[in-house]
Each structure stands twice: as structure tokens, then as C-alpha cells.
Design a protein that fits this description.
About 75% of the residues lie in helices and about 0% in strands. It is mainly α. It binds phenylalanine.
Length: about 475
């Protein structure tokens, strides 16, 4: 079958912003702070940054290299570059499955964000105590119809953007969102700097305190790093396939990783001072952002405006990530089955809505609300764990093994060189791909599977959550 002319990003900046827009999302704004809170702060942050630099960035580069060479979606890339080997195509499908699963709960979260836009507009927090404001989230999460309604709206919004294609849809929307988000985040951090708990918050985030840390948390740090960089799920493979030959792959990867770390730290700096000022528990779990931020907003002059603006941006940043998640899954259907973009997007969006229902209902008094009694975590958290602790590290591992051991060295060299001024990086990068990344990830996966117990080795026990 003749391959249709592939659509490409209109400019390098457009690509950087779209890729950054995909990467900066709820992982940075919502997940990073709460996982950091659960893992005791400073040392976890340090390991997260370490994982991002030494494992995340090399794999990020590898995905772009494979994508641009293969000129297909995640499955097609492996089909082309690995001679249709079923195993490697399976790796592509694993990435597609990860994206699909992430989308299923991502839209529930973003849906809650939409609800907060409306609550902000109606000033729900006026004349309420900090505890009351924080409690609103539990009411929302336990309401099946409201959560389902927003889950539906958000999925539909995402589908509408992807439906329009790469340039007018994804690239256009991602470009200014990222900048708006940065401005608001910095403004809020300036405000939290005036709070009494600021010093404690900063200490919590930056001071590595080993007594609150368990070595096994490094798996979570790696999973989080992959989640935030959108790795191991075919996203950057797909985005790389829309890159032009003149685009600089290593530089792009470095810029995006630096942006993500910066935004994650800003998000933490915005949230932890509030936690310490108002005496909330640092390990507040998945609702952390929704519980703490409105408390801050209620204190601010111009609360209505700031709170509305923040949650609109929250939703937009989720949207620029969600479009990537849907795009990755849909691109494979257009590539492999010859479906039109429109048909693929509709099928993927409807399935993702349906599959997201149990996550949406995970804190309600329904059948799915009981999951926690069976498994110990909500359905929502279970899906997140399956993806972040297993699928993403395995996907990343396979990308590293493929690039380091199976792909013709000449190919990666050539792709790496094209458009970059950082040619010298190929050698160290290749070494990382071949040795460091696979060994580190295998180690982490062994720990995760229980075959290895670093906590016991280091004499610390993981506390049950
Ligand atoms: N990186 C995104 C985040 O941090 C999640 C994501 C993964 C988005 C994959 C798109 C694709 O929220």
C-alpha cells in the first residue's frame, strides 16, 4: 500500500511546544507533588531528577530517533525497523496500551479540573474554613453522575482537537498553553513564598532526608520520570515521526526535560508551603492538588479570577497531553488498518470513555467503589500503578534494548547527526542506551517484581500506605 504523505510539524518551535505540551501535564501538576509527598520529599525529588537525566533523556532521544527513521506510529515503527518481528511489534502495542490506559483515568482527573473551573466561577470557597474547602474534593469524587459527566466532556473535547489533525489541532493548541501555565505557576509560587510554611515546604522538597525514604521508591521515581516525559508509551515515537530532518533531536530532548523538571518543582513549591501552613498531611494522595490549591485561592486577592484561570490552565495542560494519548492510539489504526483519522479518533475516544468508567466511579458507592476493599487501592490508582510501575518501565527497557542492540548503529548515528550541533553526544548516548539504561531498568523491575528487595538490603521497610 502506498504510504500517504505524512503530515509534519510546521516549525521546530511548534514541535518543541507540542512535545513539551504533551509532556507537561497532570503528571507534573498533579502526580509529581502527591507522589513526592507520599515518598518523603527531598531524596525522592533528587532520584527523580537523576532518573530523568540519566535514563529518561537517553530514552527520549531514542524514541525520537526511531520515530523519525520509521515514519510511522508506535507499532509501525517497530514493524518497519525490526522486519515485522512479532515481539517488537508487541512492544509497540504495549506502548499503545499504556497510552490508552493513561487516557482512561487522565480524563477523569481533567474532568474534575473542569468541575473546579465551574466551582471557582461560583466562588464555592467563600466563607469556608480550610478544612471545608479541602473536603469538597471528596464530595466531588464520590458523586458518580457529576464525575461521569465531566469525564465525558473532557474525552469529547480531546477527540475534537485530535480530529482536526496535527497542525491545526495539536500544534496550534499546545503553543500558547504552555506559556500561560508557566506565568500562572510562577505568580503563585511568589505568593506561597509569603506564607508561613514556605521554609518548611522548601526544606521538604529540597532537603534529602534519608530517614523518610525507602530505596524501593526509586521505582516510583523512574515510573514518574517516564510518565512525565511521556516515555515508554509510543508518544515520542509518534511525535518523532512528524519531525523534520532539520530538527535537532538531542537539543529538543534536553530542553523538554529541563522544562519538565522546572515545572514539577514549581508545582511542588506551590503546593507544599500551603500544606505546611495549614497543617494538611503531606501524603494527601491523589486528591492533593484539589484539596490544597483552593485553600490558597480563597486567601488570595482576586480569588475568583486566579482560581478560574488556574483550573482553566489545568484543564488545558491536561488537554495538550490527552491529545497525544489519543493520537498515539489512533495513529496506529490509520497506519495499519488504513482507517481515516476521523474514524480512528472516534473509535479510540469512545472506547477510552467506556474503559474510564470504572476509574470515574472508583470513589463512589458503586460496584467499582468496592475495588479498594479487594485490592487495597482504588481502581483509578490500580490502573495508574499497572501502567507507571510496569508498562512504562518495560516499554522504556525495550526501546533501550532495541536501539542499543538490535538497530543498525549506522541508522541511529545518521538520525542522531541530522540537524544537530551536538554530534559528540552520540557516543555517550549510545553507551547509555546499550548498558546503563537497560541495567538500571532491569534492576528496578526486579525490585518491583519482588525478586529483589533493596529495602531489606538497606535495612528499611516500606510503610504500608
Ligand atoms: N507526560 C504527561 C504528563 O505528565 C502524561 C502523558 C503521557 C501525556 C503520555 C501524553 C502522553 O501528564
Amino acid at each position: 500500500m502506498m504510504q500517504k504523505q505524512r503530515e509534519h510539524w510546521s516549525s521546530h518551535l511548534g514541535f518543541v511546544l507540542a512535545a513539551a505540551g504533551s509532556a507537561i501535564g497532570l503528571g507534573t501538576l498533579w502526580k509529581f507533588p502527591y507522589v513526592t509527598g507520599e515518598n518523603g520529599g527531598g531524596l525522592f525529588v533528587l532520584i527523580y531528577i537523576f532518573c530523568t537525566f540519566f535514563i529518561g533523556i537517553p530514552i527520549f532521544i531514542a524514541e525520537l530517533v526511531l520515530g523519525r527513521k520509521g515514519q510511522r506510529g508506535a507499532v509501525g515503527v517497530f514493524a518497519t525497523l525490526a522486519n515485522h518481528s512479532a515481539v517488537w511489534k508487541g512492544v509497540g502495542w504495549l506502548g499503545v496500551a499504556s497510552s490508552f490506559l493513561i487516557m482512561s483515568f487522565y480524563s477523569v482527573l481533567a474532568g474534575w479540573g473542569l468541575n473546579y473551573v465551574f466551582m471557582s466561577l461560583t466562588r464555592f470557597y467563600e466563607n469556608r474554613s480550610a478544612q471545608e474547602i479541602a473536603g469538597v474534593f471528596d464530595l466531588l469524587a464520590s458523586s458518580a453522575d457529576i464525575t461521569l459527566f465531566w469525564h465525558f466532556i473532557f474525552t469529547a473535547l480531546t477527540a475534537a482537537v485530535v480530529y482536526r489533525g496535527i497542525r491545526q489541532g495539536i500544534e496550534y493548541w499546545s503553543s500558547f498553553m504552555t506559556i500561560g501555565l508557566l506565568v500562572i505557576l510562577i505568580g503563585m509560587c511568589l505568593f506561597t513564598a509569603t506564607l508561613e510554611g514556605f521554609g518548611k515546604g522548601v526544606r521538604f522538597i529540597f532537603y534529602p532526608d534519608p530517614s523518610h525514604f525507602h530505596p524501593s521508591a526509586s521505582i516510583q521515581a523512574l515510573g514518574l520520570s517516564f510518565f512525565t516525559l511521556s516515555l515508554g508509551q509510543g508518544v515520542m515515537l509518534t511525535y518523532g515521526s512528524y519531525m523534520r530532518r532539520s530538527d535537532d533531536i538531542p537539543k529538543t530532548a534536553l530542553i523538554i526535560a529541563a522544562m519538565i523538571i522546572f515545572v514539577s518543582l514549581l508545582a511542588a513549591l506551590m503546593i507544599f508551603p500551603i500544606i505546611f501552613t495549614f497543617g494538611f498531611p503531606a501524603e494527601g494522595g491523589a486528591g492533593l492538588v484539589f484539596k490544597t490549591l483552593p485553600v490558597l485561592f480563597a486567601k488570595l486577592p482576586g480569588a475568583l479570577f486566579i482560581s478560574t484561570a488556574f483550573f482553566i490552565l489545568f484543564v488545558f495542560t491536561a488537554l495538550t497531553s490527552a491529545v497525544a494519548l489519543i493520537e498515539v492510539v489512533a495513529a496506529n489504526f490509520t497506519d495499519l488498518l488504513g482507517w481515516s483519522r476521523q474514524k480512528a479518533v472516534l473509535v479510540v475516544a469512545v472506547s477510552s470513555f467506556i474503559f474510564g468508567i470504572p476509574s470515574a466511579l472508583s470513589q463512589t458507592q458503586t460496584l467499582f467503589g468496592n475495588w479498594i476493599a479487594i485490592y487495597g487501592k482504588t481502581f483509578f490508582e490500580t490502573i495508574d500503578d499497572i501502567v507507571s510501575l510496569w508498562f512504562l518501565p518495560i516499554g522504556g527497557l525495550m526501546v533501550a534494548i532495541f536501539t542499543g542492540w538490535f538497530l543498525d548503529k549506522e541508522i541511529s548515528h545518521e538520525e542522531f547527526d541530522s540537524g544537530t550541533t551536538m554530534r559528540w553526544m552520540w557516543r555517550p548516548w549510545f553507551f547509555f542506551m546499550r548498558w546503563v539504561a537497560p541495567v538500571a531498568i532491569v534492576f528496578i523491575i526486579l525490585q518491583q517484581s519482588g525478586l529483589l528487595d533493596v529495602d531489606a538490603y538497606f535495612g528499611s521497610k516500606r510503610v504500608a500506605k
